[in-house]
Specification:
This protein has 258 residues and is α/β, with parallel strands linked by helices. The chain contains 9 helices and 10 strands. Helix 5 crosses helix 6. The N and C termini lie far apart (44 Å). The structure holds adenosine-5'-diphosphate (ADP) and magnesium ion (MG). Magnesium ion binds next to helix 1.
């Protein structure tokens, strides 16, 4: 069966000075899937995502997003269009403290000159979509809990109706209950908006929500497969890695050294 790929990374090579981060990196992301990317700290997972959205240009190779070859683009406006179709959820939050929730969520529409009267109903819809009471629209970020702020950050990303939602370690530092809540929110958002979701995670709970898991190792995708069967993987490296994960990221040797 022919798959419809929304992202294709083909033979990417990227080095910073003498340090090679990506080499022969190939990854095809199926439109509509929820993909989790795992790998040790410093393997280049964030660099992979940044190459995917054009924040970092590979030294060689091809990046195709939503049918557009990013590596062949000359016009910055063309690139902007692709960037708009990717919702990069920067640690979820990063809200502006001096703005209300409504102003944060609707920020791009306000920048385009739209009025509060026009924007507020859209903001309220998105707040409901991420499980918040729309009455918080008038509040300031300092009046919200950490979990609420994350939801507001996601609501802001959803305002752009992105085709691809990208999360870079969204649950780092959270307790297990909050981790589960965030994973549930990510999956609900994925299903409700029919987006493609790409998440980098250290938490094995993500396997319960993802469709596929890809593992980055030494600059390449070492493994990609069904999230449900990852626990049965016999490849020693993957086995060791996911067992390490199940004990929590703190116990991982590679994390301790940092
Ligand atoms: N802009 C940059 N300039 C130089 N080195 C970088 C840059 N971004 C990342 N690196 C290096 O690339 C390596 C991979 O980084 P990163 O993708 O952040 O790893 P992780 O898998 O933990 O997300 C690290 O050694 C990091 O120091
Ligand atoms: Mg990272």
């Amino acid at each position: 069966m022919k798959q419809n790929y929304i992202v294709k990374l083909i033979n990417l090579f990227k080095a910073f000075g003498p340090k090679v981060i990506s080499k022969d990196l190939n990854l095809s992301i199926i439109e509509g899937e929820f993909l989790a990317i795992i790998g040790r700290s410093g393997e280049g997972k964030s660099v992979l995502l940044k190459q995917m959205i054009g924040l970092i240009t590979p030294d060689s190779g091809t990046v195709i997003v939503d049918g557009v070859d990013l590596t062949a683009l000359k016009d910055v406006r063309e690139h902007d269009k692709v960037f708009q179709s990717c919702g990069y959820v920067f640690q979820f939050a990063a809200l502006l403290d001096s703005l209300t929730v409504a102003e944060n969520v609707g920020i791009t529409l306000f920048e385009e000159g739209k009025s509060l009267k026009e924007v507020l109903p859209l903001v309220r819809d998105k707040l409901v979509a991420v499980g918040l009471d729309p009455a918080i629209a008038n509040r300031y970020p300092s009046e919200l809990s950490g979990g609420m702020k994350k939801r507001v950050g996601l609501a802001r990303t959803l305002m752009r109706s992105p085709k691809i939602l990208i999360y870079d370690e969204p649950t780092t530092g959270l307790d297990p209950i909050s981790v589960r809540m965030i994973h549930e929110l990510m999956r609900t958002t994925h299903d409700a908006n029919k987006t493609t979701t790409v998440v980098i995670s250290h938490d094995p709970d993500v396997f319960n929500y993802a469709d596929r898991v890809a593992m980055l190792h030494e600059g390449r995708i070492l493994y990609i497969g069904d999230a449900k069967t990852i626990w049965q993987e016999t490849n020693p490296y993957i086995y060791q890695f996911i067992r390490g994960l199940s004990e929590g990221p703190i116990t991982m040797a590679s994390e301790k050294v940092k």
